[in-house]
Amino acid sequence: MTAETELLTVEQMYQVDRLAIEGGISGVSLMEAAGQGVADQIMQKWPVGRCLVLCGPGNNGGDGYVVARLLRKAGWQVDLVSTVDPEELTGDAAIMQERWDGAILPISEAPVGTADIAVDAIFGAGFSRYLDSGISALLLHIRDTGVPVVAVDVPSGMNGDTGIIDANAIPACLTVTFFRAKPGHFLYPGRGLCGELAVIDIGIEAQYLRAIKPAVRRNEVTLWCDDLPLLQPEDHKYSRGHAAINGGGISATGAARLAARAALRAGAGAVTVISPPSALMVYAGALEAVMVTSCGGVEDFDNWITARRIGAILIGPGNGVTERTKAFTQAALASPATVVLDADAITVFKEDPDALFSFIKSKRQGRCILTPHEAEFERVFGVTGSKLDRALAAAAQSGAIMVLKGADTVIASPAGQAVINHNAPPWLATAGSGDVLAGIITGLISGGMPAFSAAAAGCWIHGVAAGKLGTGMISEDIEREIPVVFAGLEKKIATA
Q1: Which of 11, 266, 276, 374 has the most neighbouring CB atoms within 10 Å?
Q2: What does the pLDDT look like over 405-420, one tens digit per residue?
Q3: Which of 5, 49, 42 lies closest to 120 in space, CA to CA?
Q4: β-pair partners for 178
C-alpha cells in the first residue's frame, strides 16, 4: 500500500492514462509496467511453480499476457487461457498477445487442477455487467480447488467505483492495482474479495492528479494530522473547550456515559452530561471527571448552552425518539456550537426529514455532523446507489457532514469531498461502539478540530483503538485505549 490517499474513479483513471500518454508515455509502456509490477509481486510472494493466467477481452487481458510472458521468462510453467478469440483483441492488448509465443487455451481446456497460482486478468475495474456462464463456471472451479488467486486491478466481476460484485466473483488473496487505488477497493462487498491490496507505480507522474482533482480519499493520518489539537504547555481545561452530551432517561443512561467519557479522552477540556431530572442521580453516581447537570425542558437547555459557552454538542445516544429529543436537537442547531447528531436525534426526524435538513442548511451548514448506521440512514434519506454515492448525496441533501457507519464508513461533506475509513475491525459490531465514536468526534471538535477533519480522525482513532483491543472487546474498553492511540499519533507526527 502506498502512502498516497487519493482514490480514483474508473473514469478518472482513464483520464490519467490519457494525460500520461499525451505527456509522452506510450500505452504499451504503461501496460508493460503494469504486467511487470504484477509479475514482481507474484515472484516476491510465491516460489517458482505453475501459473494459470486468465486473459479477458480488453486491457486487463493485455496485462495478463505481459504477466504470463515475464513469469515464463523467470522459469515458471505458464498456462494461458483466453476468454475470447485472441484475434478479437485490439490496441495495446493485441500487441501484448502477439508478444506471447506460447499456447493460448480456451476456457474449456483450462488446467485448473495443476495450477499453483492463478492470475485473474479477465475484467478490470470498469466492469458493470454480469459474468457469463462460462467465465462464472471457470472462476467457481478455481475457488473450489483452493488455488490462490492474484487479481489484476480488481477481481473480475467487481466494479471499481462502487465495490458492487457479480454473484459469481471469487476472492483474491492479492489484488494489484496501478498508480492509485479506486473507491471499490475499500467499499464492501468488493473490499472483501480483494485480499491484500498492492498499489504499484507504473511510471505515471502525480502531477496529472491536479488536472482531475480527485474528491475521494482513503482515511489516513496525513489528511487531518495538521488539524489535530495537540496540547501546549499553556493550555488549560477551558482552552480545550467545553462539550455537552445530551443524556437519556433513567433506563438508558449508558450511551451518553460512553460518549461523554470518550469525548473527555479525545480532546474536550470539560464535558457535561445534560440529564433529565429523573436520571440525574444515576449519572452523578456513575461519572467522575464528567460533570452532570439537569435540564427539565428546552428553555433550560438553551439557557445553559449560552451561559457555559458550549462549543460542541452531541445529541442522540440513548435519548429516545421523543419530542424532547427533537426540541433539544433544534435548540442545539440554533446555538453557536458545532453539533453532532447520532441515533435517536436522527431517527426522530424520520417523518419530516426536510425539517431537519432546512434547519441545518440555514443554521449549521458544514458545522453539523450526522453519524447514522445503515438502518438509521434508510429511515431518513431517500437516496440509492453505492455507499459512497449515498453518503455524498445525503451530505448535499442535508447540508451536514455525513458519517455513514460500517466496516467501510464513508465521511462525506456537502461540498462533495469524501473519505473512506478502512481500519475498523469486525469486533466493533457491539452495542455502544457507535456512541463511543460520536463521543470521540465531539471531543475532537471541542478541542479545536474542524468538523470534517474531526469526523475523519474520529473514525480512524476509533478503529485503531478497537484494533489494539481485539476480539472480546466491549465498548467500555475503547475509551481507555484512546490515550495509547494519541501517544502513537503524537510520535508519528513528531517524526514525520
Answers
A1: 266
A2: 999 999 999 999 999 9
A3: 42
A4: 200
Rounded Cα–Cα distance for residues 174 and 41 (Å) = 9
Instruction: Give the residue ranges of DSSP H helices in 422-450.
Output: 433-446
The residues that bridge with 78 in the sheet, in sequence order, are 51
Nearest to residue 256, comparing CAs of 275, 231, 237?
Answer: 275
Cα–Cα dist 415/400, whole Å:
10
- pLDDT tens per residue across span 421-476: 999 999 999 999 999 999 999 999 999 999 999 999 999 999 999 999 999 999 99
Q: What percent of the chain has pLDDT over 70?
A: 99
Q: Are 240 and 269 in contact (CB under 8 A)?
A: yes
For residue 121, which of 134, 109, 135 has the smallest C-alpha distance? 135
Alpha helices for 125-174 (secondary structure H): 133-145
SS3 category, 9: coil
Residue 1 has pLDDT above 70, yes or no: no
**Does the N-terminal peptide bond of residue 183 adopt cis geometry, omega within 30 degrees of 0?**
no
Instruction: Give the 3-state secondary structure of residue 390.
Output: helix
Question: Which residue has 440525574 as its cell numbers?
Answer: 280
Residues contacting 42, CB < 8 A, separation 6+:
51, 67, 71, 117, 119, 150
Give the Å distances, CA to CA, from 334 to 85, 138, 339, 445.
66, 60, 10, 17
Q: What is the CA radius of gyration of the chain?
A: 26
Q: Edge-to-edge strand order for the sheet containing 312-315?
A: 6-7, 216-218, 418-420, 410-412, 401-404, 368-370, 338-341, 312-315, 242-246, 270-275, 291-294
